Known about the structure:
Layout: E1 2-9, E2 16-21, E3 24-28, H1 37-50, E4 57-61, E5 67-72, H2 77-84
Parallel strand pairs: 1-3
Antiparallel strand pairs: 1-5, 2-3, 4-5
Amino acid sequence: MARLTVRVHPRAKRSAITGRFGDAWKLDLAAPPVDGKANDECVRFFAELARVPRSRITIMLGATSRTKVIEIEGVAQDQLIKLLG
């Protein structure tokens, strides 16, 4: 199981990891922070990145915040870091 802290930037042109923000990864999301759309896009992005079903992605902390802790079941921490670049 991998755990990752991200700092979200909603309403970007496309969803992508764009670097580091202190101890967190900066995540641009192509969704507005309205009605849970940004959280849905965050889950979709990490499911596609890690090649796991969306049901294995959990926003552990920060559902209403820009700083989020994401947990991904079925992926090792070092494997996730390699995927992030």
